[in-house]
Amino acid sequence: QVQVAESGGGLVQTGGSLRLSCTVSGLSFGDYALGWFRQAPGKGREGVSCISASGQVTYLADIVKGRFTISKDTAKNTLYLQMSSLKPEDTAMYYCAARHRWAATFNYWGQGTQVTVSS
């Protein structure tokens, strides 16, 4: 059974930092691309950052470039999102997801972790 569990969210002031973690179990971690998505109240879900199964290719949405960094530790089956220079508009529920390297869509999702940035 695949389990995806996010942690590390919380309340932070504008300009602050947080590191989100996502632990994945029940699958071959190295065969899966991983991503972070977020959804703010009243808005649709948006992609924030992704990392390929090999870890060699990463993607960051323009709105977080220069502020967020994605990484993973294959030995710990854990994905990270280091967030700095946080803004109120970064407030959202953040979700981690996994997609097999040959799959078209992310099909394993966590329950999310809330990030709230106060002004």
List the helices and strands and how they pair.
Elements: E1 3-7, E2 10-13, E3 18-25, E4 32-39, E5 46-51, E6 58-60, E7 68-73, E8 78-83, E9 92-100, E10 108-109, E11 113-118
Parallel strand pairs: 2-11
Antiparallel strand pairs: 1-3, 3-8, 4-5, 4-9, 5-6, 7-8, 9-10, 9-11
Describe the structure.
With 119 residues, this protein is mostly beta strands. It is 0% helix and 53% strand. The chain is built from no helices and eleven strands. It has strands at residues 3-7, 10-13, 18-25, 32-39, 46-51, 58-60, 68-73, 78-83, 92-100, 108-109, 113-118. Strands 2, 4, 5, 6, 9, 10 and 11 form a seven-stranded mixed beta sheet that branches. The protein has a four-stranded antiparallel beta sheet with strand order 1-3-8-7, with no helix packed on it. Strand 5 (46-51) and strand 6 (58-60) form a beta hairpin. The N and C termini lie far apart (40 Å).
**Which structural class is indicated by helix and strand composition?**
mainly beta
Could you name the ranges where pLDDT drops below 50 across 5 or more consecutive residues? none
DSSP helix fraction: under 10%
The beta-strand count equals 11
**Strand percentage, roughly?**
over 45%
The succession of helices and strands, N to C, reads EEEEEEEEEEE
Query: How confident is the prediction overall: mean pLDDT?
Result: 97
Task: Output the radius of gyration.
Answer: 13 Å
What about the largest sheet? 7 strands, mixed
Question: N-to-C terminal Cα separation, in Å?
Answer: 40 Å
Shape: globular
List the total number of helices: 0
